[in-house]
Amino acid sequence: MTGRFRPHLAPRPLDQVLRRLGAVANLSEAEQDFVRQLGERRERHSPGEELIREGQSGARARLVVSGWASRQRVLPDGRRQIFGFILPGEPLGLGRRPAPPPLSSVVALTALETLDAEPLIEAALSGRAPGLAQFLLRAQHTEDALLLDHMVRLGRQTAYERVAHFLLELQDRLQLSGLGDSQRFPLPLTQEIMADVLGLSIVHVNRTLQQLRREKLIELRSGVAILLRRELLVSISDYRPAASPPLGGASARQAAS
Question: Alpha-carbon distance 94 to 141, whole Å?
């Protein structure tokens, strides 16, 4: 497969957020306008900045407008385990209210822009925004599904299967936000970061990526991944998308519980 990846250039401020929300929930025009108004609450973060600190209460819920963040824990000797990524259009810090102290930290991996999602939660809980309540419920379900997938990856899959599964997951999630398509997607991750999320050494990650490239299953070009034989990668890794079609009839109270 040849051809260059052409991302959408200069999107409107909250396009990726609205696309992501609309992919899993049925938002009314009024709800979409409400989300657009949240654009005034945007905040920028530098790479390495800690957005949520492990064990510290009071973190506000946010939506990622652009950039990547990781949910992680660092051991006293500096070793890091990454539990997952928060991608453009996805929420962080959603869940029960009042929220218990977080069990992991959230750190910006790239330049990051977020917006305050607390008004979104308040609107959903009040019953004024059933589409947003549906989104909150779906977001929690997806987060749980991604964590279970990650446990299976680390606990039972080979390095070859892990990398294939990981790339498929990122492709699916980024496509929901309008970043990439069924084959191509941005991959601004170092092999060190991939090693920390996949529970492998950097050397092992490098060898596995090279194997996938030699077998013409993937291509990696200047921060872009291309899945050349997606169906075969799905078969290799037993990949099952965590993002499902929109749910119906979800109540705001269910979404926050």
Answer: 11
Sign of the dihedral through C-alpha 166, 176, 47, 119? negative
| CA neighbor of 71 nearest in space, from 61, 63, 80 | 80
Report the alpha-carbon distance of residue 47 to residue 17 in Å, rounded: 20
pLDDT value of position 60:
85
User: pTM of the full predicted structure?
Assistant: 0.87
Task: Answer yes or no: is pLDDT of 96 > 60.
Answer: no
Model confidence band, residue 10 (pLDDT cutoffs 50, 70, 90)? very low
How far is 173 from 64, CA to CA, in rounded Å? 13
Rounded CA gap, 124 and 136, in Å?
Answer: 8
What is the DSSP track for the chain?
A: ------PPPS--TTHHHHHHHHHHS---HHHHHHHHHGGGGEEEE-TT-EEE-TT---PPPEEEEES-EEEEEE-TTS-EEEEEEE-TT-EES-SSSSPPPPSSEEEESSSEEEEE-HHHHHHHHHTS-HHHHHHHHHHHHHHHHHHHHHHHHHHH--HHHHHHHHHHHHHHHHHHTTSS-SSEEE----HHHHHHHHT--HHHHHHHHHHHHHTTSEEEETTEEEESSHHHHHHHHT---S--SPPSS--HHHHH-
> Is 222 exposed, middle or buried (CB count within 10 Å of its CB: 0-12, 13-18, 19+)?
exposed
- pLDDT above 70 covers a percentage of the chain that reads 87
Calculate the alpha carbon distances from 52 to 44, 73, 102 in Å: 14, 11, 8
